[in-house]
Write a structure and sequence with these properties.
By secondary structure, the protein is mainly β. It has 1 helix and 9 strands; from the N terminus they run E-E-E-E-E-H-E-E-E-E. The strands form 2 sheets. Strands 1, 2, 3, 4, 5, 6 and 9 form a 7-stranded antiparallel sheet that branches.
């Protein structure tokens, strides 16, 4: 079974027991977090896989544990205009949080 969650304006596919890197979340290492669920795919009878209905997905919860906070690689941003002496260089490093998904529950 897997679920699609929403965090930081993005959607991520998660499974129980796996680690996912999402945009920076508030909380300490070892703390628990819950996510909004967009869709859930369950294993049905006779090995037929199916998606849960929208109403079931709205009730679903994905819980996880914060494993750590990391920062991504540095991105350089350069503003430049020809014909003048205008050049501005800046850098940016996005913060991420690693979350270990512990449970996907439908109720």
């Amino acid at each position: 079974m897997y679920a699609v969650i929403r965090s930081g304006g993005k959607q991520y596919r998660v499974e129980a027991g796996k680690t996912v890197r999402v945009e920076r979340l508030e909380g300490k290492v070892g703390g628990k977090v819950t996510f909004d669920v967009v869709a859930v795919r369950t294993d049905g009878k006779d090995d037929a896989k199916k998606f849960a209905s929208a109403a079931e997905a709205a009730k679903a919860k994905v819980t996880g544990k914060i494993v750590g906070h990391v920062r991504g690689p540095k991105q350089k941003v350069l503003k430049f205009k020809t014909g003048g002496q205008y050049k501005i260089q800046r850098g940016h490093r996005q913060g991420y949080t690693s979350v270990e998904v512990s449970d996907i529950s439908l109720s």
